[in-house]
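Chapter review: from sequence to fold.
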Amino acid sequence: MNDSFTTEKELLERMQGGDQAAFKEIFYRYKDKLLSYCFRFTKSEAIAEEIVDDVLVKIWTGREHIDPTLSFNSYLYTITRNYSLNFLKKAATNTVLKEKLFQYFEKSHCQPEEEVMYHDIKNIAERAIASLPPQRQRIYQMSREQAMSYEEIANRLGISKFTVKNQLAKALKTIRNYLHTHAEMNICILYVLLIISFKKFF
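The token string follows.
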């Protein structure tokens, strides 16, 4: 049977029954589209490949819960978007992932409009940090730019480690709120793009 002429609904119904050939056809129909979509978030072909493979594995393992009567296209793109954003969230707090993403970004060739976007993000970050109260700004910069520990900052400024931690938390909250207010982008994407293009601040 030539699956290239089979309807999507028929393929999904067969896949639900454990038909691997049907899943393979769905895989080939959607993989390139999902890679292109995922790349918009990650800016890395390798990372996009990993995420899309995970998405398609999820489709196979969760095939019994798929409703063939609903839009499978929307379902796939929603899962891919969620997986991409989850990766970016992890990258925002994981040093290894952050460095990996940064290296991929450095090797990529951005379009002029993307370079403008990153420049704008850097400017927004600078304004956000400049809006912090003097001591909070200093603590933030000592932590993020000078990579000083809570204890080192506390000793330098003559305050408690709890105060340092509290001030950093407030600084990050202020910056996130500032980004929400001043940038017309999904905050998660913006936050990670900021990490990539303005590495020293996060």
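Two observations follow directly from the output. The CA atoms of residues 51 and 83 lie 7 Å apart. The chain has ten helices and no strands.
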